[in-house]
Fold each of these.
Amino acid sequence: MEAMESIPRHYFLDSAFAEQAYTDKAFSIGNGQTISQPYTVAYQTELLEVKRGTKVLEIGTGSGYQASILCQLGAEVYTIERIAELADSASHILAHLNCHANLFVGDGTLGLPNHAPYDRILVTAAAPEIPFPLLYQLAVGGWLIIPLGNLDLQTMVKITRLGENDFTREDFEEFRFVPLKGEAGW
Ligand code: SAH
């Protein structure tokens, strides 16, 4: 809650929406994408249980808002976005907020193998299945938070890597995200 209070959400929105930046709503950020609703950001952040120094990979940088919250919590942030224009705009805002996230452009369903393993992986778009590469980029003891389902409704799922080839799954509440695209997406 403190991290969210300290980040100016209106920075991440088109000035047309600035007045509504602190309402609990998702907004368009262009290119057919959205900045997630604050409730959803809070929900995913809580499930991540980030501490200072936790290494997190976020799939779907979008506006950069979620990444800035992770920075504020002291995480080491890696984030990947498939739309270069969004990544570009996010990188400027994150730099302005003094958030040193490592931002990449590419297909996040493949993860970011060069910097693996991650303590946490967070997917912020709706996935039809668990992208296989992400499972094996998790540190043992780490977990993946991913909204899994169809295009209309997804269940928030937590996959924990218990051992080399040992994973468990827990299901949480239902949400509606924009689609995850790419090799293991829609
Ligand atoms: N976390 C963002 C939410 C953005 S919405 C925020 O705080 O604003 C989801 C984002 O995922 C969109 O920007 C979309 O372009 C991106 N996305 C979809 N499929 C992707 C993929 N395969 N790799 C990387 N990003 C992807």
Amino acid sequence: MDTGESARTRPETSRPVDGAQAPAIVPWPQVVEVADGEPFHLGPGVRVVAGPQPGAVSAGVLVANVLGRLVGSPVAVVQEDDGAGAAVVLELVDVADLPLPPGLDAGLASSGYQVVVTAQRVHVRAASGTGLLHGAVTVQQATLPAGVAGTGEVPPLRVVDWPRFAWRGLCLDVARHFFGLDDLERLVDLLLQLKLNVLHLHLTDDQGWRLDVPSRPALAAVSGRTAVDGDPGGHLSAEQYAHLTSYAATRGITVIPEIDLPGHVNAALHAVGELTPSGEPAREYTGIDVGFSRLHLDLPTTRPFLHDVLGDVAAMTPGPYVHIGGDEVLTMEPAEYRGFVEAAVAEIRAAGKRVVGWQEVAGAVAEMVAEGGSADDVVVQYWDEREGAEEVTRVARVGAGVVLSPATRVYLDMKYDAGTPLGLEWAGHVPLRQAYEWEPADVLPGVPPDRLLGVEAALWTETVRAASDLYTLLLPRLAAAAEVAWTAPERRRWEDFAQRLPRHAAQWGAAGLRWFAAPEVDWSL
Ligand code: TNX
């Protein structure tokens, strides 16, 4: 078997890169060596060679599309490398044949890759289609000049890379303001560019219900129409949601749907009157307060509602997780709240999925464990650093996974500074450098390392109306979050990151994505 290490493909002399001449790869890889020698020329006539396995073929087609846009003419995908001409070779290999650290977790290794660039070949090797895509993204980012159509050069390079965390995500609130299939596909494209692998969709809240679930068509038909400030609403049909989940899966990204319960439910109460004690539908709500709406566990209509909605959403979702919300329920006694968490967990389990909940569910889940249950299939998402750290740590010690979304670092709906027109301020301002310079292991030091699953940024959309608003808040801070989630702490340096960013901004600009010129960075190229 061709190991990719033959004399022909190995750069002559390779050495680790120093900051100033680093290729603009974000997140920064674990191993980067530049070599002397001729660059690889990316231009018309370049071909993609992908093996016969389905994962390699589908990665090959995506890579050829991206390269085609870069060079300005269609790029062919072929199965055999005849050695002639310039080619990008994507090779699926056994994970043991990748130069990854021994003992690396299998899930992390499957997202890893090796890239070797010589004058004749770009050779990407990985153990999964996703790994191949990650390698191709690295090559694309290392291409100079950045974002200029027609041609490019990839310097001779060797990269060996794998993620630090298995869960690298973004939570997008599509309930306060709706973003539809086209916007979500563009967002998935960006996630892949940053090697993020989770798109968590906050689909329901007081202001709107954004997914049509077959058993309860009134939810989307009625509460799909509303949004904050009376702005236009919208919802995803079951077909659009299916399309999105498969579009994301093809790019190595898991969609996690959130149905927020038992609070944040005014949109459900507005669409389904039988969920209120009076039987009268609630009035629509277009403000931005939180914590006032709730379901009632003792109404005979409530459990069937949970069963129908959670069962449908689980059945519609190919990924392993359903998020049950659980946050900010300010008007309910703990016993009833716990009853809801138990009921929702039981529905998700019966549907064959694992549960994610905001940190507020931690206490209830810990009680379930104390009474003989298990938390091994539960993930708790930590966001509010003002409270709850102890409960989250405790439930992690009895088996729950933890995902970190500390608001002062990765709530990307917080303003950058006092001058940011968009966004909220309840967790303070989140300047770019603050989104970058933090260490996940220090956030909840009592959580066992193997229970710390990763990092998820969040974008709540109370003030976010259009895609341009969305990207102004996301970029460049989402790139910071991605590097925190992917790169080993000893390889992360703010100064290096700040030097790599301007070339990304050029690509964001070329892709039509609005971004914020954070003042900590010299954006001149
Ligand atoms: C808190 S984070 C919320 C959301 C708001 C957000 C605004 C969380 C679980 N709940 O309902 O949109 O703050 O920053």
